[in-house]
Amino acid sequence: MNSIRSIVAKPAAFLGALLLSYFLASLSQSLVIMAALERGGAAFDFVTRLKVIVHDLVGLTFYADMPVSYGAQLFIGLMIALVAAELLGRWLPAARTVLCVIAGAAAVATVLWIIQVNFFYHMTLLEGTRGAFGYSAQLVAGALGGLCYARLSARSGK
Questions:
Q1: Alpha-carbon distance 48 to 63, whole Å?
Q2: pLDDT at 13 over 70
Q3: Residues near 120 by beta carbon (within 8 Å), at least 6 away in sequence
Q4: CB contact at 8 A, 18 and 145
Q5: Which pTM does this prediction carry?
Q6: Dihedral over alpha carbons 124, 117, 21, 45 (to 10 degrees)
Q7: Residue burial 87-123, b: 16+ Cβ < 10 Å; e: rest
Q8: Considering only CA atoms, which of 139, 72, 144 is closest in space to residue 110?
Q9: CB-based contact 103:82 (threshold 8 Å)
Q10: Which of 112, 131, 132 is nearest to 122 (CA)?
């Protein structure tokens, strides 16, 4: 029974990390854009804010102008980064959690870089990542996803 639990737990931990990272990254994108628009004089009521957040949650998953959606890119980036963290964690078990956190942030940074270098004039499709705060918020989303993975997957090993 423990072997079945450990086989199922790693993919479940990865799914939790992916969903958390994606949700926080999308939420950050929405809030940073709305804050910038408010500085320019726009006003958003509560319902409009919720609509924007939901629109971005769906839209960044199935964004038509990108060859691969942000959600799919996060999936690929986190998969590569967290597998690398798992492998390094075998040699550095005490640092496993830190490795997963760094891997999550690095995955998001890499995805954002790939989006930027493949877009017209090195602009980004994610307007909320143009400033230091928005970019940092995306990295924090990835880092928290990595932390989520480390915590959930560690439980499966016990």
A1: 20
A2: yes
A3: none
A4: yes
A5: 0.86
A6: 0
A7: ebbeeeeeebbebbbbbbbbbbbbbbeebbeeeeeee
A8: 139
A9: yes
A10: 112
Tally of CB atoms within 10 A around 14: 21
Tokens 């602009």 map to which residue?
A: 123
SS3 154: helix
pLDDT, tens digit (0-9, with 9 covering 90-100), for 37-76: 999 999 999 999 999 999 988 887 766 555 668 888 899 9
What single-letter amino acid sits at 15? L
Q: Which of 140, 122, 77 is nearest to 148 (CA)?
A: 140
3-state secondary structure 32-58: HHHHHHHHCCCCCCHHHHHHHHHHHHH
Name the 3-class secondary structure at 103.
helix
CA atoms within 13 A on the CB side of 104: 32
